[in-house]
Structures are given as C-alpha cells and as structure tokens.
Amino acid sequence: MQSRRDRAVLSGVVFAVLFAQVLLYPGIPELVAALGATPAAWGGNVGAVLDAGKWFLTAEFLGFVLFASLWGALSDALGTRKPLIFFSALGGGAGYLSLALLGQFGSVPYDLILGIRFLQGAATIGAFSLAITTLMDLEGGHGRNMGAAGLAIGGGTALGSPLGGQLYELGPFVPLYGAALALASAGVLVTFATDHTPSTSGRDLRAILGSIRTRPAVTVPFAFGFIDRLTAGFFALVGTVYFQSTFDIEAAGTGILLGAFFFPFALLQYPMGRLSDRIGRLMPVAVGSIGYGVAIIGVFYAPTVGVARVAMVSVGVLGALVSPATMALVTDLASPDQRGVAMGGFNVFGSLGFLTGIVGGATVAGGVSFRAAFLAVGLSEVAIALAMLPVLLWLDVPSASVNLLDRGQ
C-alpha cells in the first residue's frame, strides 16, 4: 500500500517537471523573441527561426547533461534522495520565475537569459532524474515502476503541449509563470513520499561514478535513450517550426498537434511497462524502435493537418511501447546501490540526444531541408534497433526484473 502511494506521489513529481518543460515548446519562436533573441527570427526565414530557438533549448539541456549524473551520484553517496528532489524542484521553479521576471524588463542581455536557463536546467534535472530513481527503488516490478514514470512523462507532455499553446495566447511569459508554479508544486508534493534509497555506507562520489564501469551492459539502454530523446528534441524545435510553416498554424494549433503524439504516449506507458515485465524487453525496445522510426518519417509525408495528427498518434503509440521498457532495462542492469548514477547516466545520454535533435535537426532542416531532417531522425531510430539487436538478444531480461549481470554475466 505504501509503495502504491509513493509510486503515485513520485509520478506526480515527474509529471510536474515534464509539464513545466513542455509548456514552453509550442511557442518557442515567440518566447525567445520576447526574451531578447534576434528580431531576425521573425523575418520569415526558417533558418533564422530555428537558430533563435536552438540556443534557448540548448542552454537548458547543457545543464541536464552536466548535472544529471552528479545529482544521482550525490544521492547514492548520501543515501537519500527526497531532500535533493525537494531543493532541486524549488531551484528549477526559481529559474523559470527569474526568466519570466527578467523578460519583463526587455533590455536584459540575452546571454544572461541563457545563463539563467542553464542554471534552471541544472536544477530541474535533479528533481526529474532522482524522482525516477526513487521509483526504481520501489518494489512491484521494474516494468510497472518505469511504466508509472513513463505515464507521468507522457501525461505531463500531453497536457503541457496544448495548454502551453493556449497560455501563449495570453502572453509570451505566461507559460514561464505556469512552469514555475508546477516546479514549486513538485517540491511540495515530494515531501509526502517515503525515501527508499538503499544504504551505500557513505561511498565516495568518485567510487560510485567509477563503479558503473563494472556493469558496462547498462550502456545499451543509454544508447536507445540517446536516440529516443533525439527524436523528442527534434519535434520540440524542428517539428514545431515545420508544422507552423507548412500548415500555417499558430502556437495553439501546434500544441494540439504535439498533443496528438503525447496523449497516446501517456495513456499507454503503464500497460506497456507491465507488458515488458511479462514478455521481456527485447520486443518492445527493438521492434518498437523500428516502427517508431518509420512513423516519424511518415509525419513528414502527411499532406494535411488531419493526416499529420493521425501520424503523430501512431508515433505516440510506438513511443509508448519503447520508453518504459528502455527505462526498465536500466533498472534490470544496474545494482541497487548504483541506481542513482545509472539513471543519471541514462538522463545524460538522453539529454545529449535531445541536444543533438535540437542542434543537428535545426542544422539539417535549415541547411538542407525538412525532408532530409525527418529522414535522418527516423532512420537513426531504425539503425540503432538493428545495430543493437544482437546485444539485446544477449541481454534480454524476460520478467520479474531479473538482473542478468548478477547471474554471472
């Protein structure tokens, strides 16, 4: 009963973090212009629009990359996660609030805005990564726990996209205030959870970071996490600009299109996680990734908004098949006293993927074409599945959260 309550509370924290993050996505071009980015972003040049949003998104994810493992290692070393989640959530909320307040002045250097965005990301990743890690610590099946995390991730993004689009109608800084409130709520919510961090006997941070080398197989889900989050970064910026320039829609319409992906992605996370507990991680991760990549390419070839919405639904369904099984595989392959740093590493690779999706996607779309960008992203998802298939066959964890490495691998 306690695990069920903690699962709900921690899922709520994950939900709040993703909800806050995605609130900003439907109107990124409008937001960065209001915060002081180059006015050329509104000059009708698609490349300029992509460039204006690229650095704002990149600054946050640099914070994610540099601090995700540090938060995880610190929690493993201290033997506690709950207070770290609390303070990192409040820090992230303060970052969002600072951006909104500074944006009101209109003459703040954009470099300062990017610096605060970086600090906001460094704080926010602590709440996100450690809440998922605490879910990993719960009993009840790794697929179930990671399915709950995936449901929260999908739910936050599903509601954040359409609501964010509506909030932009009220003003460019309104989503920032909403994000600050969501992170503050996450900090309050985590106080109701129980800390299940395994005892680590005060191990040194460097020793914990180094100990992950003893279980190199955990880098397999890291690789899938990189590519999966690459697609998310791609849609956050390139997808947003593509939809607006191709279908002539505003932030509100873009939010609905993004929501067509995130709603099925959210609703199916938990049952798909349970499914991976029963049938193993191989089919959801490998087969799901191939279908996911093909579906992403299909979005580009959608001739109308209606068809694009259907294509985005299919991307969401297949993404829901892949995501919880991949996170559960991290749990399967990491020892209990290394889960914080393992999930931190997973989020580092994921954040690097998101950065690659933003920067690489914007570079290809602006320098070559949207078609080339969609093909590159979709085919990369297919390629990682085919390349990793032999390794997945070797590592596959069929059920009951069996840790193959503990059986002598």
Automatic annotation (TrEMBL):
PANTHER family according to UniProt: TRANSPORTER MFS SUPERFAMILY
Gene3D superfamilies, sorted: MFS general substrate transporter like domains
Major facilitator superfamily (MFS) profile domain span: 217-409
Alphabetized InterPro entries for the sequence: MFS (IPR011701), MFS_dom (IPR020846), MFS_trans_sf (IPR036259)
Segments passing through the bilayer: 55-74, 86-106, 112-136, 148-168, 174-195, 216-243, 249-270, 282-302, 308-330, 342-366, 372-395
Keyword Transmembrane helix set for record: yes
Keywords, sorted A to Z: Membrane, Transmembrane, Transmembrane helix
UniProt keyword Disulfide bond present: no
Organism: Halovenus rubra
Name the UniProt record assigns to this protein: MFS transporter
PROSITE patterns cross-referenced by the UniProt entry: MFS
